[in-house]
Design brief:
Immunoglobulin-like; six-stranded mixed beta sheet; mainly beta; Coagulation Factor XIII, Chain A, domain 2; metal-binding; Papain-like_cys_pep_sf; 4 domains; 700 residues; 14% helix; 11 helices; single chain; six-stranded antiparallel beta sheet; 36 strands
Length: 700
């Protein structure tokens, strides 16, 4: 008989990708998930007989070899030693329908498929198959049982990243775009670049750790170069991104780091990469997050006598910090640590010699099991450190440090992520920590303290290291909240909306709950600071002495004129927050208390006008309207818009927008994909960095 030859192969793309939840990928090749069958139709030059030898060969990597496990040769009805199998579904003349099931712990990556018949080898065009993690497969360690969660954490290509400050949290819309053109290829390039061995590629813990290293450019020419310098010439300012797509496409094209990122950009891109590879992933924002350089669970804040914060500390409290949680079973750890794992690609500190962080089990953070890999001490400190305030006074020409207060419940607040299936913030603080003051929290803390040695209470800024002050008394095991004899309490609020160009009108409320006549010295300061806690400008201070007949309270106004801050606001390229710090001292009892609050400016909105539904491939108009309701001209305005599956990232130059002026721009959109889609718009100018909005549309 004539020797058996393959004449063609059909990868049955639309049927397979639908079943594998991969039909969204904008890719000409077949994309499937591991541990789940997919079908291929093989056409032959004659009918298949029992004597014929037919095998499918899957090769991965540069030089696939059987003995290395990188070449799998599969014959129908015989299970391969690596847990893959194929079977004949039906034979129909010269057509043969085969079903292939990969192992649920197969290495993820790109496989080349060849068909061998006797001594003939057939190499199809587009014969590369992408194999991803499979949260729909019970035997895959990334298995997630809840359908709505998979829809959110794996398939949703848009979302929000929560930023601002604990005092006012706001959402920044973000396009993850894991299905867009070249994004999957960029992720495959990163997998190859990671130098993970084949067996390491089986495990999402290794893959997510490697990706946390590769999304930043430090030490490996990864995707994004971080910069907090305030000067972003020669790149894109971190505030100007509205999604991950442009970044990953540019990186894949140039293979050079893209400039510039800050934490929410790193988290947005890492979220895209993990969802793209099939690992359930979410962006997590922590407010008042400690960046503690010594894992000693303490952050020192230094204030001068006017109550202004000084930039002299090695450690800092970020108004917010964003990282990611990825979902998996941790087969490398004792029981009880499956589920969400924190990973962080913002280059903060090295771990095992590289800028990478995690995966750290969120449950280990909650229970205080901070000896578990990876980087659990670091993550624990980010959400559990204490804030210690020091007053820096000149004594005989030398700086002396006086401790004025310890805040033990201030760090790691309002831990937030987007809710499943809804456009709202979900508070997940309870997943990271037990309620403040509860018995479980105390036990968890004692457990953590047994693995982390908190250092004595001495200031440790660069300036302070030479002076020993206040004795080296070490911290008690569970620090107590500072309870004052007079029940002194401070609260900071804004009394008018904080619009750029208007006076900033704020108030410090001093409250005393103990009966009696009390004299309180109050110092208040207002500064502009970056979200990393770095002070950018001093705007003004107030010093008052007030008499209170306890129990009562009094409100002290703090007002800053526009001239004091508008110049700084226009000259920085980052969004800045308003920081108000108050120090109060009761003369009669020497009680001292410090309180600080960060607030963000409030901006007029962008309105989007477009239909609620549209038909596939039918054009529709979309208009963006912005009215400058502020008292200042917004200079160099740019409008950035992007709609996944509707139109590519577009930038409009708007010039200057005077007070009261209305600006309108319009684009024509052509939807190329079905389902619920979103359009994201962002307006940036010299004065304002972060007005963004989004609007949903259903494509039928």
């Amino acid at each position: 008989e004539t020797s058996l030859k393959v004449t063609g192969i059909d990868f049955l793309k639309s049927q397979n990708t639908r079943q594998h939840h991969t039909d969204g990928y904008n890719n000409k090749n077949l994309v499937v998930r591991r541990g789940q069958p997919f079908q291929v139709q093989v056409s032959l030059n004659r009918e298949l007989t029992a004597a014929d030898k037919l095998s499918l060969r899957f090769g991965i990597g540069e030089n696939p070899m059987k003995n290395r496990g990188s070449l799998l040769s599969l014959k129908p009805e015989r299970e391969d030693f690596n847990g893959w199998k194929i079977s004949v579904v039906k034979k129909d003349g010269k057509e043969c329908l085969l079903s292939v099931t990969s192992s649920p712990n197969a290495p993820v990556g790109k496989y080349n498929l060849h068909v061998k018949t006797g001594t003939n080898i057939y190499k199809p065009e587009n014969g590369v198959i992408y194999l991803l993690f499979n949260p729909w497969c019970e035997d895959d360690v990334v298995y997630m049982s809840n359908e709505a969660q998979k829809k959110e954490y794996v398939l949703n290509d848009t979302g929000y990243i929560y930023v601002g400050s604990a005092y006012n949290i706001y959402d920044r819309p973000w396009n993850f775009g894991q299905f867009e053109e070249f994004v999957l290829d960029a992720c495959m390039y990163l997998l190859d670049k990671s130098k993970l061995s084949l067996s390491e590629r089986r495990n999402p813990a290794n893959v997510s750790r490697a990706m946390s290293a590769l999304v930043n450019a430090n030490d490996d020419n990864g995707v994004l170069l971080g910069s907090w310098s305030g000067n972003y010439i020669g790149g894109t300012s971190p505030m100007d991104w509205i999604g991950s797509v442009t970044i990953l496409q540019k990186y894949y094209k140039t293979k050079k780091p893209v400039r510039y990122g800050q934490c929410w950009v790193f988290a947005g891109v890492l979220n895209t990469v993990m969802r793209c590879l099939g690992v359930p992933s979410r962006c997590v924002s922590t407010f008042d997050s400690a960046h503690d350089t010594e894992e000693n669970l303490r952050v020192d804040i230094y204030l001068n006598e006017k109550g202004e914060k000084l930039n002299i500390s090695f450690d800092s409290v970020w108004n917010f910090h964003v990282w990611n949680d990825v979902w998996m079973k941790r087969t490398d750890l004792p029981d009880g640590f499956n589920g969400w794992q924190a990973i962080d690609s913002t280059p903060q500190e090295q771990s095992q010699g590289r800028f990478q962080c995690g995966p750290c089990p969120v449950k280990a953070v909650r229970e205080g099991d901070v000896y578990l890999p990876y980087d659990s001490k670091f993550v624990y400190a980010e959400v559990n450190a204490d804030r210690v305030y020091w007053l820096v006074k000149k004594v005989n020409g030398k700086d002396k440090y006086f401790k004025i207060g310890t805040e033990t419940q201030d760090i790691g607040k309002n831990i937030s992520t987007k809710a499943v299936g809804q456009n709202r913030r979900e508070d997940i603080t309870w997943e990271y920590k037990y309620p403040e003051g509860s018995r479980e929290e105390r036990m968890s803390m004692q457990r953590a303290y047994s693995f982390i040695r908190p250092s004595g209470l001495v200031p440790r800024s660069g300036y302070a290291s030479t002076i020993q002050t206040l004795g080296g008394n070490t911290q008690p095991l569970v620090p107590k909240e500072t309870v004052t004899k007079t029940g002194l309490h401070l609260k900071i609020t804004n009394t008018e909306p904080l619009h750029p160009g208007n006076p900033l009108e704020m108030a410090i409320t001093v409250k005393i709950s103990t009966p009696g006549n009390w004299t309180v010295d109050l110092t208040g300061s207002c500064q502009l600071q970056y979200y990393t806690g770095k002070v950018q400008a001093n705007l003004g201070t107030t010093k008052e002495t007030i008499n209170l007949e306890g129990p009562s309270e009094m409100q002290i106004p703090l007002k800053i004129a526009p001239d004091a801050y508008m110049k700084t606001l226009s000259s920085v390229e980052d969004e800045v927050l308003i920081l108000v710090t108050a120090i109060a001292e009761v003369r009669e009892t020497k009680d001292k208390l410090t309180q600080e609050t960060s607030m963000r400016f409030e901006y007029p909105p962008i309105t989007v006008q477009m239909p609620e539904t549209a038909k596939l491939y039918n054009d529709f108009p979309c208009a963006f309207i912005f009215k400058n309701k502020l008292n200042v001209t917004l200079e160099n305005c740019k409008l950035l818009v992007e709609g996944l599956g509707i139109f590519k990232m577009t930038t409009f130059d708007m010039g200057d927008i005077m007070p009261g002026r209305i600006m309108k721009s319009e684009i024509i959109c052509t939807p190329t994909r079905l389902g619920d889609k979103k359009i994201v718009a962002k307006l940036i100018s010299n004065q304002i960095k972060g007005i963004s909005t989004e609007k949903a549309i259903t494509i039928t």
